[in-house]
């Protein structure tokens, strides 16, 4: 993956060592879109399979107004990150897990899907081709966004006749404007993120726009994000708009079971494994909203979010505060996860792909 020249924005894209970093304020990265040099794209028909894709310069897509994704929301996305090691090499964290999740989602949304190898290869190509946009160690990451969309025209409600798999990337820092400071969450009772039998368990694009109103309302009241309840009983916690949630009580860590309405986060699964390896008892189960009152600690996990401590949660006008302490469970697990991701802690699990 050393050098690319096809359709490049830059006449001669960087090779190893050359033009190491893009011209960017690396000290002030947030979670905003910075266009990078290349995207990866490949199309296939409804009954076809994806061939090897091409890197092209990052730019706008041409889509029919009647594309399935624009009219009926037939689309999935993924999120994964590339890290720059001190020695300049790039590390990817479990991109195969994103590929597997996209496959599950494609099945749910009636779409053909790239193979695991093809997905991982595309992610590697995007990381390498956009290497000068991967932030220096400790300053951020290259967020990689694979998309699978029904790009062909369709008027009646049916699977689109053509699909596009594309991958683009942007350098990012912290997801929340709070940075690494604890989040304050609002428990939403009117709106729900997902319902039984819906698509909440896969990374369908249709899970995201419907929560914007709840987020906007919560943000206008000074909250960081919204925690949703189950839509049947309004009694069990589900997840936050952009991340999964965990509770800590003594040596026991609990998180809502991924039963179809909870997104199966790659960070969620990794934190569960790290916690078990480190002697915690981890329970995946239905968690009543009242349990938040007695938890020692609450934290959120996600690719974009990382592991974010929660400082307080407001439910029906009452705010529960969590004492922030050094050596919290969230901090401990986050340090291990980040250590593995950045190559500081030896990866004994085969989670890291070095490129
Ligand atoms: C991620 O964490 O990668 C996500 O997809 C969440 C998104 C709202 C940024």
UniProtKB/TrEMBL annotation:
It catalyses: L-isoleucine + 2-oxoglutarate = (S)-3-methyl-2-oxopentanoate + L-glutamate; L-valine + 2-oxoglutarate = 3-methyl-2-oxobutanoate + L-glutamate; L-leucine + 2-oxoglutarate = 4-methyl-2-oxopentanoate + L-glutamate. The modification N6-(pyridoxal phosphate)lysine is found at residue 203. Transmembrane segments: none annotated. Keywords: Amino-acid biosynthesis, Aminotransferase, Branched-chain amino acid biosynthesis, Pyridoxal phosphate, Transferase. One of its GO terms (biological process) is branched-chain amino acid biosynthetic process. Pfam families: Aminotran_4 (PF01063). InterPro entries: Aminotrans_IV (IPR001544), Aminotrans_IV_CS (IPR018300), Aminotransferase-like (IPR036038), B_amino_transII (IPR005786), BCAT-like_C (IPR043132), BCAT-like_N (IPR043131), BCAT_family (IPR033939). Belongs to the class-IV pyridoxal-phosphate-dependent aminotransferase family. This is Branched-chain-amino-acid aminotransferase. The lineage of its organism: Eukaryota, Viridiplantae, Streptophyta, Embryophyta, Tracheophyta.
């Amino acid at each position: 993956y050393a050098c690319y020249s096809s359709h490049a924005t830059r006449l001669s894209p960087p090779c190893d060592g050359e033009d190491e970093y893009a011209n960017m304020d690396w000290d002030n990265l947030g979670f905003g879109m910075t266009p990078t040099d290349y995207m990866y794209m490949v199309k296939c028909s409804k009954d076809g399979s994806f061939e090897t894709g091409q890197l092209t310069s990052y730019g706008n897509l041409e889509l029919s107004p009647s594309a399935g994704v624009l009219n009926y929301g037939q689309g999935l996305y993924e999120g994964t990150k590339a890290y720059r090691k001190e020695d300049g090499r790039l590390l990817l964290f479990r991109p195969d897990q994103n590929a597997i999740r996209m496959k599950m989602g494609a099945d749910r949304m009636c779409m053909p899907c790239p193979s695991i190898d093809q997905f991982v290869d595309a992610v590697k190509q995007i990381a390498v081709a956009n290497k000068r946009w991967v932030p220096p160690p400790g300053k951020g990451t290259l967020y990689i966004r694979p998309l699978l969309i029904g790009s062909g025209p369709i008027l009646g409600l049916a699977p689109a006749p053509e699909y596009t798999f594309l991958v683009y990337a942007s350098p990012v820092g912290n997801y929340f404007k709070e940075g690494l400071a604890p989040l304050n969450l609002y428990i939403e009772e009117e709106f729900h993120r997902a319902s039984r039998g819906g698509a909440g368990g896969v990374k369908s694009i249709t899970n995201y726009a419907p929560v914007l109103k709840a987020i906007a309302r919560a943000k206008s009241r000074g909250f960081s994000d919204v925690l949703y309840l189950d839509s049947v009983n309004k009694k069990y916690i589900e997840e936050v708009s952009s991340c999964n949630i965990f509770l800590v009580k003594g040596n026991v860590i609990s998180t809502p079971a991924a039963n179809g309405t909870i997104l199966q986060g790659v960070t969620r699964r990794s934190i569960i494994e790290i916690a078990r390896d480190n002697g915690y008892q981890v329970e995946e189960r239905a968690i009543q909203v009242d349990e938040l009152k007695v938890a020692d600690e609450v934290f959120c996990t996600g690719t974009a979010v990382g592991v974010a401590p929660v400082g307080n949660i407001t439910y029906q006008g009452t705010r529960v505060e969590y004492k922030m302490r050094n050596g919290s469970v969230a901090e401990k697990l986050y340090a291990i996860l980040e250590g593995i991701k950045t190559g500081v802690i030896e990866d004994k699990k085969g989670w890291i792909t070095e490129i």
